[in-house]
């Protein structure tokens, strides 16, 4: 009796191991969404960036040799995708930040303050004006500085890891990070956000 | 009679004797190194020098506090989380896009 030939299996998607993708997605989607949200500043763009990142990861997983941590690899893909997406949207060159532009030119400017004395960071961030000013300042950063700040100060990676992701040496990472911090500090303090005792609502000085 | 040479002033140290050169060398040098100082990446002698400058320059002291606050706020800024529906929808969209390519 002739044994029927097994049916031809359905054509496999580009990736070798679909289960591997599901595991990758399940374990890292929250991490990459958090990173994407911090880079994009709003949910819909962040979701677009997450999808672009995992689509690229899906297609590149078979070539991933495990030389870097999976999270570092995904951060790298997301960072590149972010640069591509923002370039498409804005289409304008972004300027370099120099230390000189952050030198205060008056004593008053030197002494601008951020209202968080005596408060924990969590309490200070309940001041909606301060939170909004922080988000806007980060969003205004030129992207290469934003990437350095978000990866180092918000995602908590080391300068070495940030260098791996951005293709820079540690010295260059620290230089960008320093300029990014000075930029955000200036934006925050120049808003003149007042200190509120109840810190539930904030206000900007007119 | 030869005029006696005046000895150059001794290099002074300590907060009380620190010459305030605000807007010139010291403050500018400090500005360049603040992140490394905050991140504790500088050698101890440079840290001592910076602390000495901060003790004598209230403007720089306030400036570094505000930079430190900036870093602290960034480190503690919460990010929203995805819902399970979002996770599921995005997974479908990714797999559909991958199969369409």
Spell out the blueprint of helices and strands:
The complex is a heterodimer of chains A (about 210) and B (about 100).
Chain A: H1 18-40, H2 43-60, H3 70-90, H4 107-110, H5 121-124, H6 128-140, H7 143-154, H8 159-166, H9 170-190
Helix pairs in contact in A: 1-2, 1-3, 2-3, 3-8, 6-9, 7-9, 8-9
Chain B: H1 25-38, H2 44-56, H3 58-76, H4 84-100
Number of strands of chain B: 0
State the CATH class of the largest domain in chain A: Mainly Alpha
Beta-strand percentage of chain B?
under 5%
Apparent shape of chain B: elongated
Report the average pLDDT across residues of chain A: 82
| Termini separation of chain B | 96 Å
The SSE order of chain B reads HHHH
In total, the number of strands of chain A is 0
Q: In terms of per-residue confidence, which ranges of chain B show pLDDT below 50 for 5 or more consecutive residues? A: 1-21
Q: How much helical structure, as a percent, in the residues of chain A?
A: 55-70%
How many whole angstroms does the radius of gyration of chain A measure?
Answer: 22 Å
Share of helix of chain B, binned: 55-70%
Number of domains of chain A: 2
User: What proportion of the residues of chain A form beta strands (DSSP E)?
Assistant: under 5%
Pairing-aware structural class of the strands and helices of chain B?
mainly alpha
- Determine the oligomeric state from the structure: heterodimer
Query: Which CATH-level-2 architecture of the largest domain in chain A?
Result: Orthogonal Bundle
C-alpha geometry of chain A: elongated
Number of helical segments of chain A?
9
Largest interface: A-B, 52 and 41 residues
Major beta sheet summary of chain A = none
């Amino acid at each position: 009796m002739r044994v029927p030939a097994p049916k031809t299996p359905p054509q496999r998607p580009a990736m070798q191991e679909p289960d591997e993708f599901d595991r990758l997605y399940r374990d890292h989607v929250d991490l990459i969404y958090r990173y994407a949200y911090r880079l994009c500043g709003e949910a819909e763009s962040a979701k677009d960036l997450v999808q672009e990142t995992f689509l690229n990861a899906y297609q590149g997983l078979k070539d991933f040799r495990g030389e870097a941590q999976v999270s570092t690899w995904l951060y790298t893909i997301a960072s590149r995708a972010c640069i591509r997406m923002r370039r498409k949207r804005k289409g304008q060159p972004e300027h370099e930040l120099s230390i000189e532009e952050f030198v205060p030119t008056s004593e008053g400017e030197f002494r601008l303050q951020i209202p968080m004395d005596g408060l924990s960071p969590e309490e200070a961030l309940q001041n909606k004006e301060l939170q909004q000013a922080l988000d806007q300042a980060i969003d205004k950063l030129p992207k290469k500085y934003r990437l350095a700040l978000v990866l180092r100060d918000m995602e908590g990676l080391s300068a070495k890891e940030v260098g791996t992701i951005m293709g820079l040496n540690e010295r260059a990472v620290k230089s960008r990070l320093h300029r990014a911090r000075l930029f955000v500090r200036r934006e925050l303090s120049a808003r003149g956000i007042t200190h509120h005792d109840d810190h539930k609502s904030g206000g900007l000085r007119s | 009679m030869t005029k006696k040479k005046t000895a150059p002033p001794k290099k002074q140290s300590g907060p009380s004797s620190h010459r305030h050169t605000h807007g010139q060398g010291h403050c500018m040098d400090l500005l360049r190194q603040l992140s490394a100082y905050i991140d504790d990446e500088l050698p101890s002698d440079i840290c001592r020098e910076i602390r000495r400058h901060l003790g004598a320059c209230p403007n720089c002291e306030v400036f570094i506090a505000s930079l430190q606050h900036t870093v602290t706020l960034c480190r503690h800024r919460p990010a929203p989380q995805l819902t399970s529906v979002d996770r599921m929808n995005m997974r479908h969209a990714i797999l559909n896009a991958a199969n369409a390519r």
